[in-house]
């Protein structure tokens, strides 16, 4: 959104391909109970009010069709979108690690719970456990708490020492410090378990209880919902398909960019979590820099470098504080489902040499999500490298693929 605003103010023609129905992305997601306000409302109104911006909502990119062309699909049709300059701002997705019971109804990711609540799902009176790692746990807990849920516990896998060190470092980013203080105050009565993780979820047909391991002890917590995820993973599929180089940082792949957010491909820039997870403020700055650079306004772009560096340092501290405990690799039992789409057990996949062999013999990663969930779990738990993207990037209508062949 920041990139589009900067580009539109320069008078160029701008197109936004957004797979959400309403503007705002994940942070400013709108729904029946969450309408944009404050700076989010101002940013969204600026985009809607610009005559030179075309917003393609509910639209997904399916394939890169050579230089300057993308195959996309909305609810009604598939078509080709052309571009002169492209800014890839594909965000990130949650990382799930398999454990017994993680496929029970009532178990979601932390960000997933947030999205469901903002889209209208009622949680009033429900007992919710938020687990995994990182600041997203607190954001999800606050969202649920505001809608009347009882937060039974926040379960953080990082140690108390690491969390305290990170909290103390927030003095370097005052806006983050204020945000954290407000969340802690809102949830002051909520148990916060550090150095702990959910090792099992139990229930007869739906979630009823979770087992938390903290050191040598196990804790049983009754609950109606569990929101559990272990950080975020950059969405690099489009960038990689375009030929942009990516490399691993903090154990996940991210698109490589230079100081001006330019990728290794001509006329392709990248901004936000796709280049590395760093939070809303960093993503917004990168979007502005990318737009200025694409317009050739290098001076304006460089003026934002200092602030961007401040939030990049915040991201480094965050990743260090919430690095995953290697013990989490042992959460899954042999019978635990690894691939939910194709119902593949962990043991059935783990007996193979690599991700490719597992796919060939078990169909692991060949379902609708195309390995976005189980692929990251296998990479962490089994040390397997990831394969490159294959088109279409998400499920598509046959008609879309057939009708657009003549346009390729």
TrEMBL record:
Q: Which InterPro entries match?
A: BFD-like_2Fe2S-bd_dom_sf (IPR041854), FAD/NAD-bd_sf (IPR036188), FAD/NAD-binding_dom (IPR023753), Metab_Enz_Cyan_OpOx_G3PDH (IPR051691)
Per the database record, which ranges form the FAD/NAD(P)-binding domain?
Answer: 1-283
Any one Pfam family match given in the protein's UniProt record, by short name: Pyr_redox_2
Keyword Oxidoreductase in record: yes
Q: Which Gene3D superfamilies match?
A: BFD-like [2Fe-2S]-binding domain (1.10.10.1100), FAD/NAD(P)-binding domain (3.50.50.60)
Keyword tags: Oxidoreductase
One GO molecular function term? Answer: oxidoreductase activity
Protein name, per record: NADPH-dependent 2,4-dienoyl-CoA reductase/sulfur reductase-like enzyme
């Amino acid at each position: 959104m920041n990139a589009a605003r900067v580009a539109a103010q320069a008078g160029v023609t701008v197109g936004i391909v957004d797979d959400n129905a309403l503007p705002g992305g994940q942070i400013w997601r709108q729904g029946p109970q969450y309408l944009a306000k404050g700076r989010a409302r101002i940013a969204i109104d600026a985009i809607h009010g610009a005559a030179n911006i075309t917003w393609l909502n509910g639209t997904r990119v399916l394939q890169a069709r050579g230089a300057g062309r993308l195959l996309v699909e909305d609810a009604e049709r598939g078509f080709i979108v052309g571009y002169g300059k492209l800014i890839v701002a594909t965000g990130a997705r949650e990382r799930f690690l398999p454990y017994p019971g993680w496929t029970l109804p009532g178990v979601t990711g932390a960000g997933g719970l947030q999205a469901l609540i903002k889209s209208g799902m009622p949680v009033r009176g429900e007992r919710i456990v938020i687990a995994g790692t990182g600041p997203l746990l607190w954001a999800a807990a606050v969202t649920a708490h505001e809608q009347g849920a009882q937060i039974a516990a926040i379960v953080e896998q990082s140690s108390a020492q690491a969390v305290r060190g990170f909290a103390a470092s927030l003095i370097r980013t005052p806006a983050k410090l204020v945000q954290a203080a407000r969340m802690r105050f809102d949830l002051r009565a909520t148990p916060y378990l550090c150095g702990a993780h959910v090792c099992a979820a139990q229930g007869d047909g739906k979630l009823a209880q979770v087992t938390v391991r903290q050191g040598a002890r196990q804790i049983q917590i009754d609950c109606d919902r569990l929101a559990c995820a272990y950080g975020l993973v950059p969405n690099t599929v489009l960038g990689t398909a375009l030929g942009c180089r990516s490399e691993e940082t903090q154990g996940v792949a991210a698109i490589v960019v230079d100081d001006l957010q330019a990728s290794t491909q001509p006329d392709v820039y990248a901004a936000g979590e796709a280049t590395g997870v760093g939070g809303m403020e960093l993503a917004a700055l990168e979007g502005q820099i990318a737009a200025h650079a694409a317009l050739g306004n290098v001076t304006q772009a460089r003026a934002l470098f200092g602030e961007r560096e401040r939030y990049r340092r915040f991201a480094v501290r965050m990743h260090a504080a919430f690095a995953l405990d290697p013990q989490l690799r042992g959460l899954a039992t042999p019978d635990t489902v690894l691939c939910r789409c194709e119902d593949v057990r962990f043991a059935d996949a783990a007996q193979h040499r690599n991700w490719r062999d597992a796919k060939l013999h078990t169909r692991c990663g060949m379902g609708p999500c195309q390995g976005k969930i189980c692929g990251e779990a296998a990479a962490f738990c089994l040390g397997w490298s990831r394969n490159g993207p294959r088109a279409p990037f998400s499920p598509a209508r046959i008609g879309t693929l057939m009708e657009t062949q003549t346009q390729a």
